[in-house]
Design goal:
Elements lengths: L30 H6 L5 H17 L5 E2 L12 H10 L6 E3 L6 H11 L12 E4 L1 H4 L18 E5 L9 E4 L7 E3 L7 H12 L7 E6 L2 E5 L4 E4 L1
Parallel strand pairs: 2-3, 3-4, 4-7
Antiparallel strand pairs: 1-8, 5-6, 5-9, 7-8
């Protein structure tokens, strides 16, 4: 996914059933509790979140609020849960960093999305982790010349957008440059190098969404990231 819509997020939410997974398939879980953590109106809510994601991708580094109230299982943020409820399904495998992959999260994905976290990073259409998860070389998909959309969209949980070592963004959707702060981005220089290597692959590469509480921001593969 990117601001040019050349990435993996192309499914438009609809009111069609997400999967054939039933509440009874979530073994030993509080099914009523899990159901209460989902969208109140899946068709309308997922469409609202999808539009917000498109807006964030079109304006890299701009922090956007999730446009609805939502409960999320620990340790997921509201924004990360909204991303997964909107985008993940049984045909879009999700890889979750073991540090975040609690049983509650597994049950949540299975119940609401019909998705079971995949074990192989290379198979993931979406990946959820922290900044450290995605630093340096890793096997998440970058797409192919024929199908650049077959890449992994990486969702990174951070601990805030007001502090942290800033980086400077430029490229499509940015008039001049945009400073981006996110607490939990490891060393700003290390993060910038990882993002620069990703941008060098363009039009291949991965797109990144950063989440904290009920807010998120995006840096697509087309964005240039520089350390300050």
């Amino acid at each position: 996914m990117s601001s040019e819509l050349d990435g993996p997020i192309t499914r438009v939410p609809s009111d069609e059933p997400r999967s054939d997974v039933k509440g009874g398939d979530v073994i030993g879980a509080d099914v009523k509790g899990i159901a209460a953590q989902g969208f109140a109106d899946p068709a309308i809510d997922s469409a609202q979140v999808f539009r917000a994601i498109m807006d964030a991708m079109a304006h890299p580094g701009v922090v956007v609020e999730v446009p609805l109230l939502l409960k999320a299982p620990e340790p997921l943020s509201t924004a990360a849960a909204a991303m997964l409820l909107t985008l993940a399904d049984s045909d879009a495998p999700v890889w979750v960093d073991p540090a975040l992959c609690s049983k509650a999260v597994q049950d949540y994905l299975r119940f609401h999305c019909g998705a079971v976290p995949c074990e192989a990073e290379a198979d993931a259409v979406f990946a959820l982790g922290t900044c450290a998860t995605f630093l340096g070389d890793h096997p998440f998909a970058i797409g192919t010349p024929e199908y650049p959309d077959r890449s992994t969209t990486c969702i990174i949980e951070v601990s805030g957008f007001e502090t942290g070592t800033p980086v400077r963004l430029s490229g499509p959707g940015i008039a001049d440059h945009q400073e981006f702060h996110a607490c939990g981005l490891c060393c700003g220089a290390d993060f910038a190098r990882t993002m620069q290597a990703n941008h060098a692959l363009y039009p291949l590469g991965r797109d990144f969404i950063f989440t904290h509480e009920n807010r998120f921001a995006a840096i697509p593969r087309s964005t240039v990231v520089e350390a300050l």
